[in-house]
């Protein structure tokens, strides 16, 4: 299917005998912002790393038809839950590092995003607040001309002002020829930007659907469904 960006079929991953993912199958089409939702330990970060081509796995995973791994990395921009930068860097040095490392880095887009994020070139990373650091990480990731963007907990631990700015930036600078998968457990704060959601529980996909379909079927918000599915 030509509009399919990410496809997983029967994908599993074990760590020291414990299943992090168990026979996961899913497809994500072009032009989608998808919420990958689950509690801590549900397998979200493992799924992200497989889609980013960073770790081995069992089963079949493809990005634009290429097996997830070395061959597919050029199509994927991954924002992990740890910084892409070093604390000694200034903002302009972080941008230069990303530009030098990735041939698809769009310096003009980075400049627009830095302005939107209220980040200054000479600011040192070590002096940035948690929220401003997350804004910088998002800028470095979305400024690549990738087809699949993977954002692992992009609003975790940031204040409401920074959170709103980050979500607004995703909508403002999102390229509809690509798709974005956002891993989070902060459902209420972020569900407004999702086209689809995917619930991952104990390494298994327990629900995947379009947000509007879910709301019309169940008469509930994504957050309320999340609470039902993951209630202890």
UniProtKB/TrEMBL annotation:
- Report the Pfam families cross-referenced here: ABC_tran
Q: Which SUPFAM superfamilies match?
A: P-loop containing nucleoside triphosphate hydrolases
Q: Which GO terms describe its molecular function?
A: ATP binding; ATP hydrolysis activity
- The ABC transporter domain extends over 6-227
Return the SMART domains for the record.
AAA
Q: Which domain of life is it from?
A: Bacteria
Keywords of this entry: ATP-binding, Nucleotide-binding, Transport
Q: Could you confirm whether the keyword Iron appears in this record?
A: no
Q: Is the Nucleotide-binding keyword given for this protein?
A: yes
**Hey, what's the signal peptide range on this chain?**
none
Protein name (record): ABC transporter ATP-binding protein
User: What is the species listed in this Swiss-Prot or TrEMBL entry?
Assistant: Paenibacillus apis
């Amino acid at each position: 299917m030509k509009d399919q960006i990410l496809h997983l079929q029967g994908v599993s991953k074990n760590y020291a005998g414990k299943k992090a993912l168990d026979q996961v199958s899913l497809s994500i089409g072009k032009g989608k912002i998808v919420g990958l939702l689950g509690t801590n330990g549900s397998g979200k970060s493992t799924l992200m790393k497989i889609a980013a081509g960073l770790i081995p796995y069992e089963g079949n995973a493809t990005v634009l038809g290429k097996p997830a791994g070395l061959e597919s990395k050029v199509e994927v921009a991954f924002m992990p839950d740890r910084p892409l930068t070093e604390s000694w860097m200034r903002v302009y040095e972080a941008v230069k590092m990303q530009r030098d490392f990735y041939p698809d880095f769009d310096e003009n887009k980075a400049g627009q995003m830095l302005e939107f994020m209220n980040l200054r070139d000479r600011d040192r990373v070590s002096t940035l607040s948690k929220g401003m650091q997350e804004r910088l990480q998002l800028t470095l990731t979305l400024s690549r001309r990738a087809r699949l963007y993977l954002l692992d907990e992009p609003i975790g631990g940031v204040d409401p002002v920074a959170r709103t700015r980050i979500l607004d930036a995703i909508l403002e600078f999102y390229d509809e020829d690509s798709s974005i998968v956002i891993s989070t457990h902060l459902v209420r704060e972020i569900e407004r930007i999702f086209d689809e959601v995917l619930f991952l529980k104990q390494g298994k996909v327990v629900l995947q659907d379009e947000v509007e379909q879910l709301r019309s079927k169940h008469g509930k918000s994504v957050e309320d469904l999340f609470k039902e599915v993951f209630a202890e």
